Amino acid sequence: xxxxxxxxxxxxxxxxxxxxxxxxxxxxxxxxxxxxxxxxxxxxxxxxxxxxxxxxxxxxxxxxxxxxxxxxxxxxxxxxxxxxxxxxxxxxxxxxxxxxxxxxxxxxxxxxxxxxxxxxxxxxxxxxxxxxxxxxxxxxxxxxxxxxxxxxxxxxxxxxxxxxxxxxxxxxxxxxxxxxxxxxxxxxxxxxxxxxxxxxxxxxxxxxxxxxxxxxxxxxxxxxxxxxxxxxxxxxxxxxxxxxxxxxxxxxxxxxxxxxxxxxxxxxxxxxxxxxxxxxxxxxxxxxxxxxxxxxxxxxxxxxxxxxxxxxxxxxxxxxxxxxxxxxxxxxxxxxxxxxxxxxxxxxxxxxxxxxxxxxxxxxxxxxxxxxxxxxxxxxxxxxxxxxxxxxxxxxxxxxxxxxxxxxxxxxxxxxxxxxxxxxxxxxxxxxxxxxxxxxxxxxxxxxxxxxxxxxxxxxxxxxxxxxxxxxxxxxxxxxxxxxxxxxxxxxxxxxxxxxxxxxxxxxxxxxxxxxxxxxxxxxxxxxxxxxxxxxxxxxxxxxxxxxxxxxxxxxxxxxxxxxxxxxxxxxxxxxxxxxxxxxxxxxxxxxxxxxxxxxxxxxxxxxxxxxxxxxxxxxxxxxxxxxxxxxxxxxxxxxxxxxxxxxxxxxxxxxxxxxxxxxxxxxxxxxxxxxxxxxxxxxxxxxxxxxxxxxxxxxxxxxxxxxxxxxxxxxxxxxxxxxxxxxxx
Amino acid sequence: xxxxxxxxxxxxxxxxxxxxxxxxxxxxxxxxxxxxxxxxxxxxxxxxxxxxxxxxxxxxxxxxxxxxxxxxxxxxxxxxxxxxxxxxxxxxxxxxxxxx
Amino acid sequence: xxxxxxxxxxxxxxxxxxxxxxxxxxxxxxxxxxxxxxxxxxxxxxxxxxxxxxxxxxxxxxxxxxxxxxxxxxxxxxxxxxxxxxxxxxxxxxxxxxxxxxxxxxxxxxxxxxxxxxxxxxxxxxxxxxxxxxxxxxxxxxxxxxxxxxxxxxxxxxxxxxxxxxxxxxxxxxxxx
Lengths: 730, 100, 177
Prior knowledge:
The structure holds three protein chains of three kinds.
Chain A: H1 4-19, H2 25-52, E1 60-70, E2 73-81, H3 83-106, H4 112-134, H5 138-156, H6 163-194, H7 199-208, H8 217-232, H9 241-244, H10 250-259, H11 264-271, H12 273-277, H13 280-301, H14 307-327, H15 331-358, H16 371-374, H17 376-390, H18 396-410, H19 414-439, H20 455-458, H21 494-509, H22 524-529, H23 552-555, H24 599-629, H25 631-640, H26 642-649, H27 654-701, H28 709-729
Antiparallel strand pairs in A: 1-2
Helix pairs in contact in A: 1-2, 1-4, 2-3, 2-4, 3-4, 3-10, 3-15, 3-21, 4-5, 5-6, 6-8, 8-11, 8-13, 10-15, 11-15, 13-14, 13-19, 14-15, 14-18, 14-19, 15-17, 15-18, 15-21, 17-19, 17-21, 18-19, 18-24, 19-24, 24-25, 25-26
Chain B: H1 4-24, H2 28-53, H3 57-87
Helix pairs in contact in B: 1-2, 2-3
Chain C: H1 2-24, H2 28-48, H3 52-76, H4 95-117, H5 134-138, H6 140-149, H7 152-173
């Protein structure tokens, strides 16, 4: 039954692929949305079935077919649903559905065939993402992994006639591939080490091994897997494709580059929690890279001028935080943040899409302003999303981000914690800079001196259609008739508005499934996800190394004799039901953090909670000061630190560095080496030489054809004599 | 007494003579005549061999050879006539247009 | 016996000489006539070989029909006028032709040598009616029997060949098709 979850979108893909050209837009859109909704329904029902099961054996398996049977290697095409997968699958299908809905309005100006093509790709993406999430073994996950990379390429370069878009698509795919190579190598090592590629099998086998103290095989394997994750989830060093990916349509950015595909790396680590927790070296690397990326992206996002770019760097930054969580062993916290992030990031992107849509393609925030009066729905939903991401208390982002920070702190990773706090401050600041510049104040005049920009941020992207729009994105007719003078802008159309509102609600309430015990909640999400991070099979024998086993489960009165635990945004509440949070987390970093234990810890946690709330508000305050009140100050500061400003604006020149260090050498080597020498010289040379030698021989041989019959007679006769002589001689 | 060797030797000499004629003459007709000489030499050899093994097969072969020679002569001469009409010459070396 | 040898040498010399004259003669007409003489000598040789039928065939068909045809053509084309022995303007020059001729001599030498080298004197006496098949040999009846039974297929094919040749000759020699 699980197979229908990815199958329905795949069918949608096929329909739109084959018939799309002839279907009216309403039909294509309906097909796609119905497919997603169907997948959501099946997912919800599967998850419902799942939670009916006892907590320690929650798993639904669907073995579709044997795929590879070759000697000792047996890879069946199997899907498995467990708590982690349940959460992911609901996020993908639910938010995916909302984005499909949104797209029906957003992409409306495309031609019918392009519209259908868009939805076919979107459905295909969803299908692959679901395969990725539901896969029960590495290769099946890899199928999904690659597939979403492919769809990302297709969708980023959707308006392929625009060079920057097709370039961005290529960049995304190639950088992803580099990561995928790491993933493959990691997978191979896993196979060699454990003899199985099934996640449960690997976790079981890994659970038997001791935690690696030094860098060993497990660390190597997990490190390589993590390389794959950096590619897919845009961390250092492979994050460079994500900002460029903003060339794609905004709903694509929302779905792929905020809510789902980029989270695949985080999910993958969560899926292999047992494996990773046996390789603390790698986890340290994960946390380090995560927090470095979070900081770096935050600084870049502070000065970007394109609304989508800011959000892109924000995504990179938040992903960094998720990796921080994974790196300190707080797998549930990381996934929790993934889940809340999906809501508010998708919301923010869709909101920005509504803004772009209303302004007919304008994306430069310096040319925006005052939109809160004209686009109320968009404004309020965007505001909610921004509050959530900043970590303002009571919204979802607060709970998840705070959980990560707490886990980092209590795990003893103080440096990581500190940097993460700085990153959070930056998050609040740049997000609200975005809000204030876009929605508050007056419509800004285009600035005179734009010298310090990198060209990308300035050129407004065509939000609609591949037709030739002029530089200011004023659509040539057929649009809602806006000019930059903005007499009458209209707010988001119903389909878009519905999506925005639903996501906004989600951004508020989604966090309530993870309220930490210290303030009275039951942190159900953590308990729910826990079995996924544990070694499968009941290990009663805790003496068998390792603190991190499901030792407590049989004897622990698992408080979550759950009520209907469904992580859907509207339902999750903090029951006052007792449900103690399971003290021994199945896989925890170095220390088992037993919160319930000491009041000391409680005190610390509350203090930190207050502290991070303060940080969030401080960030908002900073942004308000600079961009609400004293905008001129920002210009002066920018001018004063112009070098730094330029550095940040140009993203630390990383792209240029990669280009010089990697791309250009490869390009030149290919052109001068491989192409000239090998292809033209050797291969063509050989083939041509064969041809030329034949021609040479024939031009020599044809001289025999003298036309004189006597010559022919002579040659015949010579032959006769020779042959006869030969026989006579013998 | 006369042995097979004698006849075969004679045949060889005749054959060589014919071959010389093919190469040395400048007229197509004479070339054809030389070819006839060669054919005759072969006939002689056939009959001699046939006689030496005491069967009539040699004569039968000679019979066939003669028939074929006749046909060949007819066609060859027709060709000569056609060629002559074209170029007014019987020199085989003038007909070398089928060359490289 | 002596007569045999004498006859052989006589006829052989005539044949060889006539052939040489065919090859070396200047006038094509002379060549044709010399060839007829050669055929006559060969017929004689056939008779010494106890093959009267072959001899008769030789005279009737070869000398009688084919040579007449040759004469016709020579006359028709006025070829009995003279041409030099060796083509001076041959595209490949005269040397190869001499080489060809030389090769012919080589061939002859080869064959002779092969014979001389043969282990035993091949073949017994060629003449004399001592062999039991002499009667079979000489008899036209016997020959006919052989021709129409063992070699019946070849016989039929040959007749087709003649028809084809006839048609071909007619077609080739026509003025316009």
